User: What shape does this take?
Amino acid sequence: MNQRYMLDTNVVSHVMQGRDAGLLARLTQLPVDQVVISSITLAELEYGVHRKGQPVRLRNALTQVLLRMDVLPWDETVAMRYGEFCATLEAQGINLSDFDMMIAAHAAAVDATLVSRDKAFAQVTGQRLKLEIW
Assistant: This one.
C-alpha cells in the first residue's frame, strides 16, 4: 500500500487560500488517493466557514478540497488510539489541544503521515506518529 498523508487543518487552510505555490506543487505531485483529511479536520474547517458567515469563496474552496481528498471517519479504532495517546502524553507532561490530539491519534491509527505546519506535533512523534512539517 502506498504511503498516505493526512493533512492537518492548518495545511488545508493554506490549500484553500491558494497562495502557497510550494505547498500546492508538493500536493500535486502526490496521487490523489494518498492525500486524506480527518473528519476532525473537516469539523474544524466547517466551523471556520460558519464562523465567518459562510462566505462564498471559503465554501467554494472547501468544496474543491473535498472533491480531491477523502475524509476518513472517526471510528472505534481511532478513539482507542486517542485514549492511549492522551494518557501517555499526559504522563510525560505534554499537552496539545484536544483537536490536535484527535488528529494525531487519527493519523497514527490509520498509519498515515501527518502533514502540518504546527511544530507542536513534534512532541508526539515518539507515539508511533509519523510527521512531516510542510
